[in-house]
Design goal:
The protein contains three helices and 16 strands. It is of the alpha+beta class. Strand 8 and strand 9 form a beta hairpin.
Length: about 300
């Protein structure tokens, strides 16, 4: 065998080994960097007003992904009223070592969510989920897209078949928002399904918050002062056997409460299901005599019942 034949025999093998070594070193460097960052921020702020703590963590996924599994994780978000804290039983995040800057989150098992109301009282919600998946995509301007999908939400005050939330930054100073909730069941056995699509203007006022440079409620205040509004381009819901549809716009007033105009219209005659409670804190107050023909609408929400957001 001459030297030229040996070159063509060993060169592909050598090239493969070189690429494998480069990929391995690249993964090891990224995994070490991520592990060091997590350990340095354990029990400290990872963003303004957001603190992450965990008992242990492990990183796997060689050679093309970074799969991080946490034990004893808690995430605390500061609010003007007091802290809000989420403690999932199981939590993991996944990211590729190449391609776009995207992180996928998943949680399972028993979850505990505690928060402080505006009057200083404490609240706690224990719930379980069949699955909870979320993804976040970042670009040069910060968070560009966020998606959340919860299947099989089960708690004492509320059961939901599926809840989804999607938002993305548009290129024309707007956010697009979409929310769907299927088969929400309340203690009164009242069932509610909702689908909302909307857009948020004055998105530039939220840039610092998206980039992780200021607290979320500071960003909301900047958005309020910029006269930001949420335009609900389509809203449909089914509650107590009646289907509604509508569109409108929402904003934050000087008291940091939701305000706006959001009339709903019934898709047909109001025939409230027997035993169904037609009023709730976050729902439209509909006062009708179910034994007589009722008007189609509009029905207006009572935003005064919703407390300040911050």
């Amino acid at each position: 065998m001459n030297y030229s034949n040996r070159f063509f025999l060993y060169a592909p093998v050598g090239l493969f080994l070189a690429i494998a070594c480069a990929v391995g070193i690249h993964w090891w460097v990224l995994a070490s960097r991520l592990g060091s960052w997590l350990d340095a921020h354990n029990g400290r702020e990872v963003a303004p007003g957001v603190t992450m703590a965990f008992a242990s963590r492990s990183i796997t996924g060689f050679p093309f992904s970074l799969d991080t599994v946490f034990r004893g994780l808690s995430i605390r978000v500061d609010t003007p009223h007091g802290p809000t804290q989420w403690r999932p039983e199981e939590f993991a995040m996944h990211a590729l070592t190449y391609g776009r800057d995207e992180i996928i989150f998943e949680a399972a098992g028993k979850q505990d969510l505690s928060w402080t109301k505006a009057d200083g009282s404490k609240r706690d919600l224990v719930f379980a989920v069949g699955s909870l998946h979320a993804s976040a995509i970042r670009d040069a301007t910060g968070l560009a897209r966020f998606d959340l999908d919860i299947v099989g939400f089960n708690s004492q005050p509320l059961i939901a078949k599926r809840v989804q939330f999607h938002t993305r930054r548009d290129k024309v100073d707007k956010f697009e928002l979409a929310v769907t909730a299927d088969d929400l069941i309340f203690p009164s056995n009242s069932a509610l399904s909702v689908a909302i699509t909307s857009r948020v203007d004055a998105a530039h006022a939220l840039d610092a918050a998206r980039e992780g440079k200021e607290r979320w409620y500071t960003g909301l205040e900047h958005w309020r002062l910029a006269t930001g509004k949420v335009y609900l381009t389509n809203l449909s819901e089914e509650f107590c056997g009646v289907k509604y549809f509508g569109r409108g716009k929402l904003w934050l007033n000087n008291l940091h409460r939701i305000d706006g105009t959001l009339p709903l219209y019934a898709a047909g005659p109001l025939r409230i299901s027997p035993g169904c409670h037609t009023t709730s804190k976050l729902h439209y107050e509909i006062v009708v005599d179910i034994n007589k023909p009722a008007a189609i609408g509009p029905f207006h929400p009572n935003f005064a019942k919703i407390g300040p957001l911050y």
